[in-house]
C-alpha cells in the first residue's frame, strides 16, 4: 500500500508546486501547511521534489541567457557609439538656451509690467464694484442716523430692517458692516427706551389731568344721555339708546406729555362754537408710537402688559375707596352712586369699551340699594305704628272722606250710605302704610331707570323688592308691634282689622305696579305679591296675642280673689273680683264686634275655658287645706255668675249653650257637693248618661278631703256628730269608695 501511495504523493506535490509558482508569496502559508498535514515523510519527499524543480528552472534560465547573449553584446556596442553624438547635442542645446535667455530678458520685463497694469485695472474695477455695493449701505445708515436724530423711530426701525435683510448681507465681509450689524441691536434698545420714556411721560401726564379728561367725557355722555332720553320720551319710546359720540376735527398743537393745546386758546367765540371732547384733550400718539415700535421689534406683549398694568394701577388709585368709608345705609347716596356708575358705563360704552361687568356691579349695588330701602322703610313703618292711636278713622265731612279714600282704596257700601260724621273701621296707620309701600315702589323703580332693562325685568325686580318689603320688613315690624307690652287688647283688635284691610289692598298694589311697567299680570313669569300671607301671619299672631293677653288679664283678676274658705255661710252675692272680671269681659267682647266672627268666638270660648280652669285650680290648690260648706256655697254663687255671663251671648254666633259648657266641670262638681248626691254619683259612675259624668273621682276625693278636715274643727260636720253619726259614717264610706275608684283608674 505504501508503494501504491507514492504516485499519488508525487501528483499532489506537483499540484502544490504549481500552486506556489502561480500564487502570491503572501498566500503560500496555507499551501505549505498542507504539506505538514499529509502522511509521514511527505515533507522529505516534497523537498526532494522541490530541489528537482529548482534545478530544472536553473537549466532553463541558463539556456535562455545563452540564447540572448550575442544580441546583448551588440546593443552595448551600439550604445557606446551614440554616446559621443549625445554629448555634442547637449552642448548645442545649452548654447542655444543661453542665447535665448539673453534675448528674452527685455520681453520678460515688459510682460511683467503689462501683468502689473492688468492687475491694477482689475483691482480698480473690483474696488468700484464693491464701493457701489457699500455706498447704499452707508447711505441707509446715514439715513438711519438722521431718522434717529429727528425722532422718527418707527421709520428708523424700518430702515434697520432693510439694512439687516437687504443691504448688509451684500457686504457682510467688511469690518465696518460687522460694526454696523453689531450696533443695530443697541440702537433698537435705545429706540425702545426712548419710546418707553415717552410713554411713561404720557402716563404721568394723563394721571395728573385725568380729572379734567374724565369730567369732560362724562359731561358729554350725560348731555347725550339727556338728549336721547328727551327724544325717546317725545317719541313714546320705553328703551334707552346706546350712547354714540362723534369727535370734531379741531386743530390742536401737541405738548410733549401727550396733552393737547388749542391753537386758538384765547378765542372765546371758537370755544362757544365748538365743544371739546375727551379725545380732543388727549394726544395718544406716544401710546401708538410705542405700540408700533414694540410691535415691529416683536415685543408687543411686553408693551401691552406694561401699559395695562400701569393703567390698572392708575385706575386703582382713582377708584381707591377712602379708608374711613363705613357701610352705606343712605339709599339716596346709593342711588346717586348708581347714577354715577350708569353715566360712567355710558361714557365707556361710547368709546367702545365693554361695560357688562359694570352693569353686573350695578345689580350688586341694586341689592344693596334694596337693603338700605328696607332699613329706611323699617324705621318709617316703626314710626307709623308708634304714632298710631289704634282707633277707627273719624271723618267729619265728605272732603275728609275723599282724602282718605284717595290715599287708600277703601270701599264699603254700608259706610258710604251713612251720614257724616262717621268712622272708617281701620286706623290712620293703614292709609299711611299703603302710601309708604307705593313710595317704596317708586324708590325701587328709580334704581331700575337707565339700566337698559326690559319692562318685564323691571316688573320682576319691582315685585321681588316689594315682596321683600312686605314679607320681611313690614311683617317683622308687625310681629314686633304685636309683642310689645304696651299693646293691649283694644290695640290688638285694631291691628287685626288693619291687616284685614291691608290684605284686601294687595291687589291694588299689583295693579299699581302693572300700570308703572305696562306688563300684564297674566304673563307667565310674572311674580305675585306675597302680601296676603304676610298680613294673614300678622293677623294670626295678633289673634294668638289676644288670647294670651285675655288670659293674662283673667289671671290678674283671679289673683284678686280673697275667699274665706272656712266661712259658715255665704254672703248671698257673688264676689266683687268676679263681677269686675265679668264686666271687663263684657266691655272687651263689645270691642270684638268688629273682628271676624270666628276670632271673637274663639277668644270668648278661650276666656271662658281659662276662667273655668282657673276657678277649678283654685278649689284644688294643694296649699288650700280646708274648705267649708259656706265657702262652697259662695263659690257656687260666683260660678253661677259665670254661667249667666256665658248664657247672655257676649259674642254672637254660639249655638245653644255651647259657651256654658265651658263651666260644665265646675257645675257638676259643685252640684254634687251642694246636693250631697253621692249615692247617685257612685251608682251612675262610668255610665254615659250619668248626671255627674264630668266629675273626676280624684277631683271629688280631693275636695271631700278638704271638707273632711274642716269637720274635725267643729265646722259643718260637728252637727253630724251630734245629731246623726250615721252621716259621718256615710262620709267615711264615700271617701273609701272614691279612693277605690281612683286606685282602679290608676291601675
TrEMBL record:
InterPro entries tied to this protein: EXOC6/Sec15, EXOC6/Sec15_C, EXOC6/Sec15_C_dom1, EXOC6_Sec15_N, EXOC6PINT-1/Sec15/Tip20_C_dom2
Keywords: Exocytosis, Transport
A GO CC annotation given for this chain: plasma membrane
GO BP annotations listed: Golgi to plasma membrane transport; intracellular protein transport; vesicle tethering involved in exocytosis
Exocyst complex subunit EXOC6/Sec15 C-terminal domain sequence ranges: 358-706
Pfam families cross-referenced by the UniProt entry: EXOC6_Sec15_N, Sec15_C
Domain Exocyst complex component EXOC6/Sec15 N-terminal: 49-218
Keyword field contains GTP-binding: no
Transport recorded as keyword: yes
Family recorded in the similarity comment: Belongs to the SEC15 family.
Described purpose of this protein according to its UniProt entry: Component of the exocyst complex involved in the docking of exocytic vesicles with fusion sites on the plasma membrane.
This protein's name: Exocyst complex component
Source organism (scientific name): Oryzias sinensis
